[in-house]
Design brief:
2 helices, 86 strands, Methylamine Dehydrogenase, Chain H, Immunoglobulin-like, globular, 43% strand, disordered N terminus, nine-stranded antiparallel beta sheet, 2% helix, mainly beta
């Protein structure tokens, strides 16, 4: 299709979006493709496509398309976008690359590009050849000029035996096992990440990832020895590295991130599939060796996910889809949602992710109704396809269930939703969706591969290249918006103003590395009906640094005010997250690409180094060994060499002096210190400040510290006063501290003891002064130290305990006083407001409950139907509930003698239900009118109470049609409810009702002032509609004691429900009859049970007619029809019912075992 026609189609589609008339994604087909590239073979042309970027300075960019099964080895075809004016074939490729090392190399199975690893300003790219175990790096400077042969010195070959081949069928390939576009270590060069997931136990049981940092002098070679870093898996068969991606800087610190997937056929049992996020660092990942060292871990298994969703089969950098300046990323789970697939999006922010979370916790989840393995190998982003200057998202669906393979474009927006369905969601203010499909064919893996990067029409909207690896075609789409959002041309009278804040209040032209620069341009408005775009170019006085083109957007319709922002970083310019490389002293210009006079500039000032997390401590004691060591976090956005200025004062805080001024002392690690933009925690022996030879001081030292880079000096940080201690601590003391030998009795073998010691000291516990300590514990800031110790032995065993304290600098005290522990029972008592004694026997608990105490207790409410007479609590300071191993006898003298001793109980307050435990029985061993003795089985609260009224009223079981009601069974629509009420006093009233599931009372029967001790009641119910009902009986006696009974029944006259249950089974006729419970939903004409043996002989039978329905039981005593008890064995009970001409039966299997 020609460009003009295509432009009109897209313009129409976008106008539909603007009017919001479509409720489903808009579809674009291959008829709209600007260029179609074909191959004359069946060797998977289009299996992998990638944008290569600039290979020749000053010329248009290039694309690469692979044909990995061609000529046994595979081929890669390179096309230049300047040739994309008509349909092409592989014969039109400007360069054809082939591998010649062997057969089945699958050269070109995966291609990735867009990175400059050697820093020459030309993009480089990588081609995988897993069959030969090779990763080939093609440097852009080796582009052939006329001979179709890449310069051999500019091809760097890396090797590994663990690379992934295309696997089982066309739906599998090497996913994203290589990534090149990103700077992980902040040196300004793109780095290479290679996933090697193939298991080769024991050499590679869990997969691994190789990192090769960019350098002008890369040589290639075996990755095991030539990779700068190797990160391995930790779980066998995990296949770590199946997918990898360098993620555009997610936290705006100037360093890109690394995301690793571990997709495998079998997920781990605990977390399912997992993905691992590592933040970029200047340390070259020195402290990283395994994926579990990741800063954040994402996993598939959750309450709503069994973990089999192929989570992390694809991981991808997707640019900045919400336009907040922070890089975002996606994790694909193509097998989720019953093979339809899901994609989880994660949004960057200034704060690093440091957690482990399930994929379902992702802030945005994408799915599609008819997709199949959505996003398999195919998730990308970072480019604008819709003309609003915000990066959009590309999702492949090459296996869609409907048979129409698709590529989806999801527009980026400043506001996001929690979930997106690609096929049903409206195009609204949150997002717009385009669906690109093949116009004439299906099941050919259209959209198996996609890539972007060029802008052939120079309209600011990125082109899209889509491969179909079975159809052997690749399609280029120019997504033109037909000026839905107009581009402004600046006028001579316009201005550009720079601000330091997002509220656009503080105007400035001086910034530092790490600052956001907020731009406001005032110029003409070309289209008043919508906000428009204004392109601005950010350039340097240093011509070797890349420029950044930004698209500032108008603040509203017809304002003529355009705003955008970018961040100054030390590392490199990154257009995907609006970063501009800057060094102090540089001048940076912001200008229109079309009008030289529409310009302004800023100056990059020196950044002031900062200190934080400063900790000073004394190390060593004595005249020669007393030292102070200071650890701290140092950061300088310019990576300057800095000097630390430490000062001290003793007593007089106004007399500050440099550490060097203290006579005889020495200071190290304060000069010529390399600082870093990400900062460094300097806490090792080689990095922390050491101030030695401080002599035998015993003072409080005041310390303050600041740092300078030769231009700027940080604020002074004053530390908390530091006590320099060269005096041994006082000896610890048991209470009372003035007694040298203290005897106590303990009722448990494991005991809690406390003592007083110097605050923050380490206290050692000894059972013998001539032996080593058996325990140590730290005294708290108040000087309290607590131990749990075990004393072996029986009642009467004694053990002496001794303590020593060692302070924070290593000085040790003399011996403490002596604590003598004897094992035995412990008596507790109270004298007021009544007398009580509790005996805690030895062994009542294995672990002593610290400060076990017996105290009076008055409940907020009495036990139901009882009056509280006396109460007490038996609890510990650190434990208030729980059972004793041995009952504890408690004797209580009543504060007021009882008149009679009838109906006295001891109640326990249940801490779980927060109510009196009415079920448990507390054993009373003796009771008189003046005292009671009982066994306490638990820690907690007890009430001794006496019943002041008769028992609550009761009734026999509620019956329907003279059979006991069985809950949740079916009953006829008309029936009779009956029961007998009784009470040891006189009945006062009752209410019997039947209500629907909506609590609407259908019928109710009441009677007041009954004034008898027993009463038969009957309740007729007729023609209940189908539904579920609650039968409720409430009985109240003359003392206002109340009993309530409820049952739930079902009515359904539309069908005949006939069920039978029996038990016990097996049953012994000599002990109990067999009960058969029957439920019939309506009245029936006949009912019968016939029991036969395995030969079909009738043993017993029962017949009845005009059954009212509902639930009823039938008994069989195990005797046959001749009166003889049946033999052991298996019997069959056939249950029959008949209603008019309808008959139902059910067979039960009965085992007789005498």
């Amino acid at each position: 299709m020609k460009y003009k026609h295509f432009l009109g189609v897209i313009g129409l589609l976008l106008s539909i979006f603007t009017l919001k008339l479509f409720a489903v994604p808009t579809t674009i087909t291959t008829n709209n493709a600007q260029v179609i590239i074909t191959a004359n073979s069946e060797t998977r042309f289009g299996h992998s496509v990638t944008f290569l970027g600039t290979l020749v300075q000053g010329e248009s960019p290039f694309y690469a398309i692979s044909e990995p099964l061609n000529k046994d080895n595979g081929s890669v075809y390179i096309f230049q976008t300047s040739d994309f004016s008509t349909d092409l074939s592989t014969q039109n490729a400007v360069v054809s690359l082939n591998n010649t090392t062997g057969t089945n190399d699958e050269f070109g199975l995966f291609i990735t590009g867009g990175g400059d690893v050697d820093g020459d300003g030309l993009d480089d790219f990588i081609i995988t050849s897993p069959g030969s175990g090779e990763i080939k790096l093609y440097l852009g400077k080796g582009y052939p000029e006329g001979n179709n042969q890449w310069t051999s010195n500019d091809i760097k070959t890396f090797t590994s035996t663990f690379l992934t081949s295309h696997g089982d069928g066309d739906s599998k390939h090497s996913a994203s096992t290589v990534s090149i576009a990103g700077d992980l270590n902040g040196d300004g060069l793109d780095d290479i990440v290679i996933g090697a997931p193939i298991e080769d136990s024991p050499n590679n049981p869990s997969g691994r990832v190789y990192i090769v940092f960019g350098s002008p002098s890369l040589t290639g070679g075996a990755l095991e020895t030539n990779a700068n870093k190797i990160i391995t898996g930790t779980i066998e068969a995990d296949q770590v590295g199946y997918s990898v991606s360098i993620i555009n800087d997610t936290n705006q610190d100037g360093y890109d991130e690394l995301l690793i997937g571990n997709y495998d056929s079998t997920p781990s049992s605990e977390k399912g599939y997992q993905a691992y996020l590592f933040y970029g660092t200047w340390t070259n990942f020195a402290d990283t060796s395994q994926v579990t060292d990741a800063d954040a871990i994402f996993y598939s298994k959750s309450n709503n996910n069994d973990g089999s969703d192929w989570f992390s089969e694809t991981v991808a950098s997707i640019g900045d889809i919400n336009d907040d300046g922070y890089g975002d990323f996606a994790i694909g789970a193509p097998n989720a949602n019953s093979n339809k697939g899901k994609i989880y999006l994660y949004l960057g922010s200034e704060s690093k992710l440091t957690h482990t979370e399930a994929g379902e916790d992702s802030p945005i989840i994408i799915n599609a109704t008819n997709s199949y393995l959505l996003g398999l190998h195919g998730i990308s982003g970072g480019y604008d396809y819709t003309g609003d200057s915000i990066a959009d998202l590309i999702i492949n669906d090459p296996n869609q269930n409907s048979g129409i393979e698709s590529t989806y474009i999801v527009s980026g927006k400043t506001s996001n939703v929690n979930s997106i369905n690609l096929e049903t969601d409206e195009s609204d203010e949150s997002h717009e969706i385009y669906k690109i499909t093949h116009s004439t064919t299906s099941n050919d893996y259209f959209s198996f591969s996609t890539t972007s990067g060029s802008d052939i029409s120079n309209d600011g909207i990125t082109d899209l290249l889509i491969g179909s690896n079975i159809l052997e075609e690749v399609y280029l789409f120019e997504l033109v918006t037909n000026n839905r959002i107009a581009t402004a041309n600046p006028t001579e009278g316009g201005t550009i103003t720079l601000y330091s804040d997002e509220t656009y209040e503080t105007v400035t032209t001086t910034f530092k590395v790490g600052d956001w620069v907020y731009i406001q341009a005032n110029t003409q408005d070309p289209q008043s009906s919508t906000p428009n775009l204004l392109p601005l170019l950010v350039t340097h006085n240093n011509t070797t640094t890349a420029s950044l083109l930004i698209q500032s957007i108008e603040t509203d319709n017809d304002t003529g005010i355009y705003r955008d922002k970018f961040k100054l970083v030390r590392t490199r310019t990154n257009p995907f997250v609006s970063q501009v490389k800057a060094n102090k002293g540089q001048t940076i210009t912001i200008k229109s690409p079309y009008l030289e006079t529409f310009t302004t500039s800023l100056t990059v000032e020196n950044s002031t180094p900062t200190l934080s997390q400063i900790i000073a401590k004394q190390v060593g004691t004595g005249f020669e060994d007393t030292s102070i060591e200071i650890s701290y976090f140092l950061q300088d956005m310019d990576n300057d060499i800095v000097t630390i200025f430490p000062e001290y004062s003793i007593n007089d805080t106004n007399n500050w002096q440099h550490f060097n001024n203290k006579s005889g002392s020495q200071v190290s690690n304060i000069t010529a210190i390399q600082a870093y933009d990400l900062g460094q925690l300097r806490e090792s022996d080689s990095t922390k400040i050491k101030w030695t030879n401080l002599s035998n001081l015993n003072v409080t030292m005041n310390i303050r510290i600041q740092v300078g880079d030769g231009t700027n000096t940080s604020n002074i940080v004053t530390l908390a006063p530091l006590k320099i201690d060269n005096i041994a601590p006082d000896s610890p003391r048991f209470d009372p501290p003035t007694t040298e030998r203290i005897s106590i009795t303990k009722y448990a073998s494991i005991n809690i003891i406390t003592a007083n010691a110097e605050a923050e000291s380490t206290v050692s516990l000894f059972k013998n002064k001539n032996e080593l300590a058996i325990k140590t514990a730290n005294a708290d800031s108040q000087g309290i130290v607590t131990f749990n110790i075990e004393i072996e032995g029986d009642v009467g065993t004694t053990q002496e305990i001794y303590l020593k304290a060692t302070d924070t600098v290593g000085l040790t005290s003399d011996w403490s006083n002596t604590l003598i522990i004897e094992l035995g029972p412990v008596d507790l008592s109270i004298d007021s407001p009544f007398q009580a004694t509790a005996t805690i026997p030895y062994g009542a608990t294995e672990n002593e409950i610290l400060s076990l105490a017996l105290t009076p207790f008055t409940p907020s409410s009495d036990p139901p139907s009882y009056l509280h007479k006396a109460g007490l609590s038996l609890i510990g300071a650190k434990k208030t509930t729980g059972p004793f191993d041995l009952n504890c006898p408690i004797t209580v003298s009543f504060p007021t003698p009882l008149e009679i001793t009838d109906n006295v109980k001891v109640f326990y307050f249940n801490p779980n239900s927060l109510s009196w435990d009415l079920e448990s029985t507390i054993v009373i061993t003796s009771l008189s009118q003046t005292s009671i003795t009982f066994y306490a089985p638990y820690l907690g609260h007890y009430s001794i109470a006496q019943h002041d009224f008769p028992e609550s009223p009761s009734n026999t079981s509620l019956k329907i049609n003279n059979s006991t009601i069985k809950d949740n069974e079916y009953y006829p629509s008309s029936f009779t409810i009956s029961t007998i009420l009784s009470d040891d006093a006189k009945l006062s009233s009752y209410t019997l009702s039947i209500s629907s599931s909506q609590n609407d009372i259908y019928k109710e029967q009441k009677e007041q002032n009954i004034n008898v001790t027993s009463k038969d009641i009957s309740f007729e119910v007729e023609n209940l509609p189908n539904g579920t009902y609650t039968i409720r009986l409430v009985i109240i006696d003359e003392h206002n004691n109340q009993t309530e009974q409820t049952h739930t029944i079902k009515i359904d006259t539309s069908i005949i429900i006939f069920t039978n249950l029996h038990g016990p089974n097996p049953f012994n006729p000599l002990q109990t009859p067999l009960i058969i419970g029957t439920n019939i939903s309506i009245p029936v004409d006949e009912f019968a049970i016939i029991i036969v043996d395995q030969s079909g002989n009738t043993m017993w039978e029962y017949h009845d007619s005009n059954i009212l329905g509902g639930y009823f039981t039938t008994e069989w005593n195990g005797y046959d029809k001749n009166g003889n008890i049946v033999q052991n064995g298996i019997y069959y009970a056939y249950c029959f019912m008949k209603k008019n001409s309808t008959t139902k039966k059910e067979r039960l299997i009965i085992a007789v075992l005498k």
